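Researcher: Going back to the complex we discussed earlier. I've cleaned up the inputs and rechecked each line, so this should be the final set. Can you rerun the prediction on the complete assembly and write out the structure?
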Amino acid sequence: MTDLINVDQLIKVYPDGTRAVDGVTFQVARGEVFGFLGPNGAGKTTAIRVLVTLLRKTSGRALVGGHDVDREGEEIRKMIGYAGQFIGIDIDLTGRENLVLQARLHGMSTADAGRRADLLLELFGLTDAANKRAGAYSGGMRRRLDLVQALVHEPPLLFLDEPTTGLDPQTRNALWKHLEELRAGGTTIFLTTQYMEEADRLCDRLAIIDHGKIVVSGEPAELKASVGGDVVTIALPEGTDGELMERAQRAVAAFPGAGQPTTFDHSVAIPVKDAGQSLSEIVRRLDEQGIPIAKLSFTTPTLDEVFLKYTGERMRVEETGHAQSSMFASMRGRGRGRG
Amino acid sequence: MARTIETVRPSETPEFRPGSAPTGNPVARLVAESTTIFGRNLKKLVRIPMMLFFSLFQPMLWLLLFTQIFKKLGQFPQFQTLGYSSYLMFFAPSVLTMTTLTSAFQSGMGMVTDFEQGMLDKFLISPIHRSSVLIGKVMADASRMVLQGALILVVAIIMGARIKTGVVGAVVMLVLAAAFGIVWAGLSNIVALSTKNSEMTMMIGILLTFPLLFLSTAMMPAALLPGWLETVGKFNPVTYVINTARQFMNFGYAWMDLAKAFGIIAIVGLFTLTGATRAFRKATT
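Model: Rerun complete. Updated structure for the full complex:
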């Protein structure tokens, strides 16, 4: 009963026959940050639009705050904020007027609405443009204004559909920080994202969704653990010959807590249970053999691998082109790991 | 940008309780919500001065051009027996109605814009009664029509027209024209909500509106129309609206005609406005 969102066997079939959401079941607890992670066309937006009462489901059950999405839409709309994937701002009004309008529509008094609007405009770097027509805003500014519209009335439950897609890194960080503050204040957040990094950083729990179905769900750490431990990568100096590479590979092979090492380019990758505990052993073994180390790094597995493991394919994210070698690509993708 | 984040608490408005926001009398709520939407639409109207200028300039152009084209008609003996002192006196109520109808058939375009710009979604996820979106729009349309109509009357008076029934007559004419405009705007919104395309809305609007005007007594008195047109005109609501306005302008108080005109407007409105409400509901679920 403490679940703020309770979805059971939700199905949405569009009139053209597309099964956008195909039997999805999940719960979101009060105060939790829950994420839908999946590629374009996975059904994230459809699911969120059903929950915010903009779209009628085909079948299944969906309760938000204990209210049925079909029959008690108005009760749901009283408690939510929603920023869709597509921007919804009035270009003839100023940024501030847009915010005040949204706050008013959600029942805030004019004075409160103005105060909240000014606060959020400041927070998201829009103060200078507050009294300019939103039509004169740049794409990034419109995106920010649209996001802020979802926050202005302080809803206890926030729905954010790919909130950081198309955001500059600075704003993205500002948003992340703000969302973390909101969570600390008890706000429940449901968000969708294509970005592993985002899901990893923000979500208490997440569900990986693909082709309208939840593939796997759990805490980010739990999911990452399920695909194995860390990987330590030793890069030897450039131009290292094959014989030395083989010696290096043999040197670090099979010690307790480590798996079978593999080589690529002039590097050796060693899967280990815990990188922190294995590092000294690996360095000691290479040292004994007199093998020079050019670079040493280690990474923890990311949700990229989780997605790969459970869907059998890589995440289809438009903006980033993945390298051909899946091994190498995942190495690069993990560059920002703990080390 | 991020510099102030650390110092700001998420909640600094304790008197506002999210989740229980709109309470109280449903009628009072509907009025408040509609007024909020109305205010927003009104702001849009005045925000682009060029647009406001042209929406006011166009009807004046009609008035000037038509009264020039048909000026000599006023001197025809057949016309003079009808009791109008000039073609201007005959035509001013027509241009008033033409103006509100022109605004009316464009009304749906604003709805399409709201749809395309995602504003409709924003309205729909807020806990307002859905009809306030339509009511607020109708209120803004009506304000625009009354403003345009008042300007037309002022210009007509400057050109030499006089309203027999004075200020009361002027108010009656404005309210009548705006009422019919609102009812007609319902039709435009039905088209807008079912096509979701502004060009289509415009085109179908013109197609429905102009024949309606020409098949009425807007340009010519019924006595001077060909027989079949006179008959068609009898089934045209525009005829009743314009004829009533003409009575107040030229001859005196005609309360029975007014009641009849409003009755006809109400019947048309029953179809167009409930149709628009249904189209709105259909388009938003």
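Model: Worth noting: The longest helix of chain A spans residues 169-184.
Researcher: Good, that matches what I expected from the previous run.
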